[in-house]
Q: What sequence folds into this?
């Protein structure tokens, strides 16, 4: 627990950015009509790609003995990749609905 508090104290600016991005993300998603959620999945894939790159950069610049940063970075990479794969699957399925049947 002390390691977690020390990590937050050492990286307070990153913590503020994370909290602010959560609030901005909730407000952006809340204001989008439900009809547009599926077509916007491709845009969400691009955002998840940014999350993956950011998590990799955080892991590269963290101390090799800082297991909290490495664990959180790894978790962010895994969840970002799952989101990208799921987004492409949903987008592909949506596009299949508009194709003419043979």
A:
């Amino acid at each position: 627990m002390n390691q977690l508090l020390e990590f937050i104290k050492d990286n307070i600016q990153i913590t503020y950015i994370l909290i602010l991005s959560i609030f901005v993300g909730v407000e952006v998603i809340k204001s989008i009509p439900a009809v547009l959620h599926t077509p916007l999945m491709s845009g969400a894939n691009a955002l998840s790609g940014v999350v993956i790159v950011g998590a990799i950069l955080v892991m590269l610049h963290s101390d090799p003995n800082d297991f909290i940063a490495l664990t959180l970075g790894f978790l962010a990479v895994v969840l970002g990749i799952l989101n990208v794969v799921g987004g492409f699957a949903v987008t592909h399925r949506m596009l299949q609905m508009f194709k003419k049947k043979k």
Remarks:
- The longest helix spans residues 67-97.
- Residues 37 and 60 are 33 Å apart (CA to CA).
